């Protein structure tokens, strides 16, 4: 039988230091590792290996993202709101970690040496449904809030007049108010992105992997970001650049970029935590 165990991407022992604060010791025995800057590349490499081992699964999730993108675009144009294309494209990344649950489950099963099919990957959504549902609501609220903020920014900078379709690009990027609009939108959008990235960094993979509650998962995710904020800021930037590249080729690039990032995010989770002393067991509700 072919060995299906995922390659080990855990940082060397001598690069790992455990947080010793009482707060972290209270998080179900799960410790946060301090990772080095070269780990981001290793997470992407491991994610690419997982994608190559299960291409049909990855492309299915990727195709879903592409299709969802086209549906959103069509809806915006039909409703006369094409000016929201860019902000909602960015907002899509706020909920992408939840869409990637099936990819986390795929990587988890590969790591455990278990059989994996598209049906098995869907089991990820059923492993901790209540807690995943709770974090899904949180991410959706961020998405809706960002959508409302984007609409308000257009109203403020363009005096309530929506740019017509034939001048939309010019008005958005090259008009007199474009620079102030783009800078303000980028700062506010960046704030949303940082918060969502911090709370979803390891929380969703952790809920797929462990019998743990959403509050603990969110706390650990924020701790991981705070402890490794320099490395993880670079990791977040890499995710944003890859996602943008996927979107700029008529969204078709998302068919590969999204599964790659989903698998890589699982390996980031595995690299950032030490569960050797965890009292939160791994979930075992699996579909045969």
UniProtKB/TrEMBL annotation:
User: Is Transmembrane helix given among the entry's keywords?
Assistant: yes
State a single Pfam family of this protein.
DUF2189
Query: What InterPro entries does UniProt report for this protein, alphabetically?
Result: DUF2189
Is Methyltransferase there in the keyword field? no
Q: Which UniProt keywords apply?
A: Membrane, Transmembrane, Transmembrane helix
Give the residue spans that cross the bilayer. 56-77, 83-104, 132-158, 178-208, 229-257
**What is the protein named?**
DUF2189 domain-containing protein
């Amino acid at each position: 039988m072919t060995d299906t165990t995922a390659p080990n991407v855990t940082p060397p022992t001598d690069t790992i230091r455990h947080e010793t604060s009482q707060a972290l010791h209270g998080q179900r025995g799960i410790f946060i590792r301090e990772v080095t800057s070269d780990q981001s590349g290793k997470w992407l490499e491991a994610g690419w290996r997982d994608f190559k081992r299960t291409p049909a699964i990855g492309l299915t999730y990727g195709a879903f993202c592409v299709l969802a993108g086209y549906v959103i675009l069509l809806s915006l144009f039909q409703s006369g709101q094409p000016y929201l294309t860019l902000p909602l494209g960015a907002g899509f990344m706020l909920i992408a970690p939840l869409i990637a649950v099936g990819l986390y489950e795929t990587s988890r099963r590969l790591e455990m040496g278990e059989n994996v099919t598209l049906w098995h990957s869907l089991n990820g959504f059923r492993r901790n449904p209540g807690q995943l549902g709770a974090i899904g609501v949180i991410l959706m609220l961020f998405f809706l809030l960002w959508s409302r903020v984007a609409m308000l920014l257009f109203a403020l900078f363009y005096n309530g007049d929506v740019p017509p379709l034939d001048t939309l690009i010019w008005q958005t990027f090259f008009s007199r108010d474009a620079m102030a609009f783009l800078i303000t939108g980028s700062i506010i959008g960046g704030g949303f992105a940082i918060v969502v990235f911090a709370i979803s960094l390891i929380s969703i993979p952790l809920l797929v992997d462990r019998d743990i509650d959403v509050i603990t998962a969110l706390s650990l995710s924020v701790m991981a970001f705070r402890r490794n904020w320099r490395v993880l800021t670079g990791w977040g930037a890499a995710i944003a650049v890859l996602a943008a590249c996927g979107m700029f080729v008529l969204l078709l690039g998302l068919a590969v970029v999204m599964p790659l990032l989903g698998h890589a995010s699982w390996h980031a989770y595995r690299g950032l935590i030490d569960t050797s002393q965890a009292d939160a067991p791994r979930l075992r509700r699996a579909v045969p």
